Amino acid sequence: MTRYKSVGKKVVPVPKALKDSKSPSILQSDKFSEVKTERLNSERLNNLVIGDGNLSPSEISYFKTALQSCERAFSFNQEEMGMINENFEGPIKVETV
């Protein structure tokens, strides 16, 4: 037995339109709803520079909504800055001269 198929046994897919198929669309339930958060409030979100003019308004809105799920990764002042849990990374000793 050989590991590879010979040319005669290979199956090549053929592009063919499916019968009675509809084009997929975005459902209302698939869209994000606006979530109010403490760190990424509307003032801070409006101050963010997102893209350089190449994104559509709907893409910018989606990006801002997607940022809400990881808002704790951002700190805007010293009080919001946290520390890594010791279960993930232990204390590091920095050698100085």
Write up what this structure looks like.
It contains 2 helices and no strands. The protein is mainly alpha-helical and about 100 residues long. Helices cover about 20% and strands about 0% of the residues. The mean pLDDT is about 80. The radius of gyration is 25 Å and the shape is flat. The chain has a domain at about 35-75.
What is the structure about, briefly put?
The protein has helices at 42-47, 57-67.
List the defining traits of the structure above.
single chain; 97 residues; mainly alpha; 2 helices; 18% helix; flat
Per DSSP, the total helix count is 2
Strand content: under 5%
Strand/helix succession: HH
Average pLDDT over all residues? 80
Number of strands: 0
Name the overall outline: flat
Rounded Rg? 25 Å
Distance between the termini: 65 Å
Secondary structure: elements and pairs:
Elements (H helix, E strand, L loop, with lengths): L41 H6 L9 H11 L30
